[in-house]
Amino acid sequence: MRYAFGRITRLAAILALLMVAYAGAGLVMTDTGAWAQQRGTVPGEAIGGSSTSDMWRAIRRGVPGSVSVPDKQTGILIQSEGDNWRAFRNGPMSNFGVWLMGGTLVALLVFFLIRGRIGVDSGFSGRLVERFNNVERFAHWVTASSFVVLGLTGLNMLYGRYFIKPLIGGDAFSTLTMWGKYTHDFMGFAFMFGIIMTVIVWVRDNIPDRYDVVWLAQGGGLFSKGVHPPARKFNAGQKIIFWLVVLAGGSLSFTGLGLLFPFAIQPFEATFALLNLVGFDLPATLSPMEEMQITQMWHGVLSLVMIAVILAHIYIGWLGMEGAYDAMGTGFVDENWALQHHPIWMEEMGEGGGAAEQAPARKPDA
To answer: Does residue 233 carry a pLDDT above 90?
Structure first.
């Protein structure tokens, strides 16, 4: 019994010494940690001289880390601007498009109900004049048809999940959108080709002249019956459409290429640099991801604006003006139509020695 008691006593003494030693070590470590934090370092030097909060702030700002793979974008763990891009795309941009296109359609309907169809005051003569040759019509229809396909597939990508998906179901919608995206990507090259052809065949006829001032002052005769301001081959309204298609279409093409080839084309960094030279306060440099987001936003907003413009263009050519569709549909217009809307062009064609060819007599479709 005495021997067992002695062993227990010695064991208790050893445990007490160990506890004292452990407590002392803890005090030393605590003091060392506090001293290290006062010096601005991190206990244990686990991540160098930065605290964990500093590290996460940098990650939140999109500061890239060090990676060994070729794609340095993988070093960005969190891209906070992506939240802003997604919120803008699904919020203001989508709402803007709905109001813009809906408002355009309502305005055109109201205009048609009030103004009616613009007719040929003296009636059709039955004598036809060549308005556009086959090359010009080809350039127009390549540009127009490709834009329609691009517009429909683009609208599906923006609004399809709200309007089409509930009607046809998720599986069918995913298939439709996948093929729509492929079509959108490749049809863009047809649109670019059409833009180039449009510039080649019509740029000289779309230079502003003195007749455009009169046409604009009289509202093109669109709001007053019997008023038909003079114009050459293209009036001021058609010239505005031409330059919008060329300039906006060129911008859509450039930004579209930037989206087709991510991070390879960066149009906005150079644009921002030029704008800063004239007094703007824009970011001097953009990360590749920010460049892509700005490119997509500009591409989307500009597309919506152009869709609204082309809706008005389609209205005038198809419904709003009698005989206008024949110009691109067949290439020929009635002589009285040409004299009413483009008298200066008719005079110039007459001076050109019969450049306005007569076609077999027929009455154009009303």
So the answer is: yes
Q: Nearest to residue 197, comparing CAs of 289, 132, 264? A: 132
Residue 164 exposed, middle or buried by CB count within 10 Å (0-12, 13-18, 19+) = middle
Beta strands in the chain (DSSP E): 128-130, 332-334, 358-359
Q: Can you tell me the mean pLDDT for 330-344? A: 95
Q: Rounded to two decimals, what is the model's pTM?
A: 0.77
- State yes or no: pLDDT of 215 exceeds 50: yes
Written as six digits, the tokens of 25 are 């070590």
Sign, CA dihedral 188-194-200-204, equals: negative
139 membership: H or E segment, kind and range: helix 134-163
For residues 78, 253, 246, 272, the Cα torsion angle rounded to the nearest 10 degrees is: 30
Grouping H, G, I as helix, E, B as strand and the rest as coil, residue 253 is helix
Residues of the chain with pLDDT > 70, as a percent, come to 79
Q: How far apart are CA 60 and CA 83, in angstroms?
A: 12
DSSP 8-state code for residue 123: -
Q: Which whole number is the average pLDDT over 219-240?
A: 91
Neighbours of 29 (CB within 10 A): 12
Please give the residue that has the higher pLDDT: either 129 or 67: 129
Strand, helix or coil at 272?
helix
Structural contact between residues 48 and 259, judged by C-beta atoms closer than 8 angstroms: no
- The phi and psi torsions of 50 (rounded to 5 degrees) equal -115, 150
How many whole angstroms separate alpha carbon 115 and alpha carbon 108? 10
Tens of pLDDT, residues 69-109: 777 677 777 777 788 888 999 999 999 999 999 999 999 99
Going by C-alpha positions, the residue among 344, 319, 326, 112 that lies closest to residue 223 is 112
Q: Do residues 295 and 258 lie in contact, with contact meaning Cβ atoms separated by under 8 Å? A: yes
The model's confidence at residue 365, banded by pLDDT at 50, 70 and 90, is very low
